[in-house]
Write a structure and sequence with these properties.
It is a single chain. This protein is α+β, with helices and mostly antiparallel strands. The chain is built from 26 helices and 19 strands. It is 50% helix and 10% strand. Strand 14 (496-502) and strand 15 form a beta hairpin. Helix 10 (236-243) packs parallel to helix 12, helix 11 (251-269) packs across helix 13 (327-345) and helix 23 crosses helix 24 (625-635). It starts with 19 loop residues before the first helix and ends with a helix.
C-alpha cells in the first residue's frame, strides 16, 4: 500500500441518473461513482480504498449527512484525495444493501441502518470498517465523519496486517452463514407438536419483550417506569404473527392477540399515524408512539394495511376481555392508509410510488407540524373543543414550540367527555380534520420518490385484496387489479420479472422478494375475484422462481437470480425484519400453489425450504414468523374450496369467508373460465369442492353440507 496517493481526477458521475436518491447527490463536490467493475478497477489502479454509501431518498438522516458532509467542500476534498466514493440507492440495489448490512452486523455486532457507511478493499470488495450516520463535527464521545476518514486513510495505508485480519474476519463471518447441503436424502417429516412448540416459543419471546404500557416491543416495564426513551418500529410481521392464533382456549394465544390489538390501537391513536391525511410514518422516536421520523414508505403502509385489516376481521371473533384496543381507531386506520395512497402516492398508471420524504424545508417533519392558532383558525367552537381535547392542545407543545398531532385518548372517549352524541361528535371531528387538511393542502407535498418498486406494490396488492372483503368495498380489488395489470404489462418481460419502473422504463432484474411477494398477492386477489390471466401469471412466476432462484442442493431460495452479478456473499434470507423473509413467503406460496395447482414440484420446493431453515427456526422461532407459518401449513394444510358459478357461488364464497375467515382459502371460478385448477375440471356450475393437501372430498351442491365438511376438516387438525 502506498504512503502517498496520486492526485485525484475522478468526477461526480451521478448527473442524469433516474434515481431520486442519486440525483440528490449529483451536485455534490464528492466525486461519486456508480457501482461497477470499472469503478473498482479504477480504485485498484489508484490504490485507494472504496468509500461506499448506501441510502434512500426519503430518509431524514441520509438527507442530513448529504447536507452536512457530502455537500461540504472540505470533506469532499478528503474523500476525493484518499478514496474512491460509490453512492448506491438501496431501493435500486437491495442486493447490495442486504449483503453490506450483514457486513455491518458482522463488524460491529449491531444492526445497521441508513445511511449505511462502509469502507471496502478495492480488490476483494470486502468491507473492513462499517457504520451508519456520522456527524460532520466532533461531539463528546462521538467521532466525526472527517475524523473517521482520517483514521481509515491511515489504517489502510500503514496497518496492512490488521487490514488483512479484518478482511479475513468478515470473509469467515460470511462463510459461517452459508447453508449446509441437504444431501441426497433428507428428513421431510414434521409433526404438530413441533409446530406448537415453535409457535409458543415465538409468542413467548415476543411477549417477554412487549411494552405493556404503550404497546409494541423492545422496552421493559421497569424502563417504562423510569421514563426511558426508545426508538420504536411497528414491526407488522410480529403483530400479524400474534394475531394468527386461533385457539381461544390457549392462554398464550389469547395474550398474544391481546397485545397485538392493544399495540395497533396505540399506534393508530399516537403520532405514528398522520391523523389528517392518513397513512403511517416509518417509526417513532419515543416509546409512546408520539413523535415519529416523518418519512412515509409504501412497503410500511402496505404491511400495516394488511395488519389492520386482519385485526378488524378478527375483532368480532374474540372475547371483549381479550381486546384492549379500540375498534374505532383500527377500523379508521386501514381506510386512512388507502386514502393517503390514492391521493398522494398513486401514479396515473394505477401503481404506487415508493416513498415520501421526511424532510421539508430542511426540517424533519416540517410539512406535518402545526402552529396551534393556524390549526384551529377555521374550526367552529365545538370542533375546536373536540380537537383540543383529543390532541391535548391546551397542554405544552410536543415538538419544540409546535404541535405534531398525536391523540391522547380515543375519538369516542373525547366525544363522550365533551358530552356529545357519538354520531354528531364523529361528524364534528371529520369536518375539523377536513378543514385542517385543506389548510395543509395549500403548501406543496414533501419530496416524493416516484420509482415504482414491484415488491412494495405487491405487498399493497395483497393488502387491498384482503381489505375488499373486510370492508365490503369492491373499489379496493379494482385498485389491486390496476396495479397487477401494470406489473404484468410493464415489468414482466420475456418470462422474467423486473424490480423497478423508473424513468419510463423497466430496470434491474427482479429479486426474490419481487417474485414471492407478487405470488402471495396473486393468491390473495384470486380469492376475491378470479381472473384467468392472473392465475396463468402466478404459474409463470412460480416456474421462473424455481428456475432462477432455487438452491437445488441445500434447499431454499437465494435473494438474487443465478445469472445475477456475483457479489461477495449470496444470501438466502430467512429472518423477518422490516419486510417478511423471502424464503418464508416462498415456502408458503409454493405450498399453497402446490395444493391449488396440483403440482408436486412446488410442494417439494416448499418442503426443502423449511427443512433447510429448520435449525434456525428451532433456535430463534421469534425471528422466523413467515417460515413458521409455512412449517405449520406443512403439518396442517389450509383447506381449499373451489366454487364454480356466478352470483349464487358469490354468496357461498361470502358465507364461507364470514364463517371461517383466513382458516380456509376459497376460490370462486366463473363458469366461462378457460384456465383454472385441475380439481375444478370435475365440477359443474353450482358445485363446490373441498380439497385438503393432496385429497379432495365429495363435491357438494348445498352450502350447508360443504360447510359441514370444512368443520370436520378443521376440527381434525
Amino acid at each position: 500500500m502506498p504512503l502517498s496517493t496520486p492526485p485525484h481526477r475522478l468526477k461526480n458521475q451521478l448527473s442524469g441518473q433516474a434515481s431520486a436518491y442519486l440525483a440528490m447527490h449529483a451536485d455534490n463536490p464528492v466525486a461519486w461513482q456508480l457501482w461497477s467493475d470499472a469503478t473498482f478497477a479504477e480504485a485498484q489502479r489508484l490504490q485507494k480504498p472504496i468509500f461506499l454509501s448506501i441510502g434512500y431518498s426519503a430518509s431524514h438522516w441520509c438527507s442530513v449527512m448529504e447536507t452536512e458532509s457530502f455537500a461540504d467542500v472540505d470533506t469532499a476534498e478528503i474523500l476525493n484525495r484518499h478514496f474512491v466514493s460509490i453512492k448506491v440507492d438501496r431501493e435500486e440495489r437491495p442486493d447490495l444493501d442486504d449483503v453490506y448490512q450483514i457486513a455491518h452486523h458482522l463488524l460491529t455486532g449491531r444492526p445497521g441502518g441508513w445511511p449505511l457507511t462502509l469502507f471496502l478493499c478495492p480488490k476483494t470488495r470486502l468491507p473492513f470498517i462499517a457504520g451508519t450516520y456520522y456527524t460532520k463535527d466532533e461531539m463528546p464521545n462521538v467521532m466525526s465523519f472527517t475524523q473517521l476518514l482520517d483514521r481509515v486513510k491511515d489504517f489502510y495505508q500503514t496497518r496492512e496486517k490488521e487490514f488483512l485480519n479484518l478482511r479475513t474476519q468478515i470473509r469467515r463471518g460470511y462463510d459461517s452463514l452459508q447453508p449446509g447441503d441437504l444431501g441426497k436424502e433428507f428428513d421431510l417429516r414434521f409433526d404438530a407438536q413441533e409446530v406448537k412448540t415453535f409457535r409458543d416459543t415465538a409468542a413467548a419471546s415476543l411477549l417477554l419483550d412487549a411494552d405493556t404500557y404503550n404497546g409494541g416491543f423492545g422496552q421493559s416495564s421497569a424502563l417504562q417506569k423510569v421514563g426511558a426513551v426508545q426508538t420504536k418500529f411497528p414491526l407488522p410481521t410480529n403483530l400479524q404473527s400474534l394475531l394468527r392464533g386461533v385457539d381461544a382456549r390457549d392462554s398464550m394465544q389469547r395474550a398474544a392477540r391481546q397485545h397485538a390489538f392493544f399495540t395497533l390501537s396505540q399506534m393508530a391513536k399516537g403520532g405514528l399515524q398522520d391523523h389528517l391525511g392518513g397513512g403511517f410514518f416509518r417509526y417513532a422516536v419515543d416509546s409512546q408512539w408520539c413523535i415519529p421520523h416523518f418519512e412515509k414508505m409504501l412497503y410500511d403502509n402496505a404491511q400495516l394495511l394488511s395488519t389492520y385489516v386482519q385485526a378488524v376481521a378478527l375483532h368480532g371473533s374474540v372475547d371483549e376481555s381479550e381486546n384492549r384496543g379500540s375498534l374505532s381507531e383500527n377500523e379508521q386506520a386501514a381506510p386512512g392508509i388507502v386514502h393517503w395512497l390514492k391521493s398522494e402516492m398513486r401514479s396515473s398508471q394505477g401503481v404506487y410510488f415508493s416513498a415520501m420524504s421526511a424532510d421539508y424545508g430542511g426540517d424533519d417533519g416540517g410539512y406535518y407540524i402545526w402552529d396551534k392558532k393556524t390549526l384551529l383558525m377555521r374550526l367552529s367552537p365545538a370542533e375546536k373543543n373536540l380537537m383540543t381535547r383529543l390532541f391535548q392542545l391546551d397542554g405544552s407543545p410536543n415538538y419544540g414550540d409546535a404541535w405534531h398531532l398525536a391523540q391522547v385518548m380515543s375519538e369516542d372517549e373525547a366525544i363522550a367527555e365533551e358530552g356529545l352524541d357519538l354520531r354528531e361528535g364523529r361528524e364534528f371531528l371529520a369536518n375539523a380534520k377536513a378543514k385542517c387538511l385543506s389548510i395543509r393542502g395549500q403548501i406543496p407535498l414533501p419530496m416524493r420518490d416516484e420509482k415504482i418498486i414491484c415488491s412494495s406494490n405487491a405487498l399493497l396488492i395483497k393488502a387491498l385484496s384482503e381489505a375488499t372483503r373486510v370492508f365490503s368495498n369492491d373499489d379496493f380489488i379494482d385498485l389491486a387489479h390496476e396495479a397487477i395489470d401494470f406489473i404484468y404489462s410493464h415489468l414482466w418481460i420475456n418470462k422474467r420479472l423486473y424490480s423497478l419502473w423508473q424513468g419510463g422504463e423497466a430496470c434491474f432484474m427482479a429479486y426474490l422478494n419481487d417474485y414471492v411477494f407478487l405470488m402471495d398477492a396473486l393468491l390473495c386477489s384470486l380469492q376475491v375475484r378470479w381472473r384467468d390471466r392472473d392465475y396463468q401469471f402466478l404459474l409463470h412466476l412460480a416456474e421462473a422462481l424455481i428456475e432462477n432462484f432455487e438452491d437445488r442442493s441445500a434447499g431454499g431460495f437465494f435473494f438474487t437470480a443465478h445469472d445475477h452479478e456475483v457479489l461477495i456473499y449470496r444470501h438466502k434470507p430467512d429472518i423477518d425484519n422490516v419486510l417478511p423473509a423471502g424464503n418464508g413467503i416462498a415456502a408458503k406460496v409454493l405450498l399453497r400453489l402446490a395444493h391449488l395447482a396440483a403440482e408436486p414440484r412446488y410442494q417439494i420446493s416448499a418442503l426443502k425450504t423449511v427443512r433447510w431453515a429448520r435449525k434456525n427456526i428451532q433456535e430463534q422461532p421469534h425471528l422466523h414468523h413467515t417460515l413458521l407459518l409455512a412449517h405449520e401449513e406443512l403439518v396442517s394444510p389450509v383447506p381449499i374450496v373451489l366454487l364454480v358459478g356466478g352470483a349464487e357461488m358469490s354468496e357461498w364464497a361470502l358465507r364461507i369467508y364470514q364463517r371461517f375467515g383466513h382458516k380456509v382459502h376459497c376460490f370462486q371460478i366463473p363458469t366461462d373460465s378457460n384456465l383454472h385448477p385441475p380439481e375444478a375440471m370435475v365440477l359443474e356450475e353450482g358445485e363446490g369442492l373441498v380439497c385438503v393437501g393432496g385429497r379432495s372430498l365429495l363435491a357438494q351442491r348445498e352450502l350447508l353440507l360443504l360447510m359441514s365438511q370444512l368443520d370436520e376438516v378443521l376440527s381434525a387438525q
